[in-house]
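Researcher: For the annotation table, I need structure tokens for Metal-sensitive transcriptional regulator. Please keep the output clean. Sequence:
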Amino acid sequence: MDEHQHGYIGRKDDYLKRLRRIEGQARGLQRMVEEDTYCIDILTQVSAMTKALQAVSLGLLEEHLAHCVVHAAQESDAAGKAKVDEAMAAITRLVKS
């Protein structure tokens, strides 16, 4: 584990609030299915939840690049490259999802 604080620490409460809201959206989707809600209405809510998760992902990625990658690059070229490679793998996973 890195010795420095993660980039998102300064906005941790904001991220937790967003994730709790997304958790509520997931419970709402479950209720919609249980109540036999019209499929297009469910899909609309799935889209909203997906966008909310993407917003969290992009925020975390931005924080990671601005803090973790920069910090590693200041340590050494090898550490910086390793963090860039790690970020690229995460971006690839996000794009494929």
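Researcher: And a one-line annotation?
Model: DSSP finds three helices and no strands in the chain.
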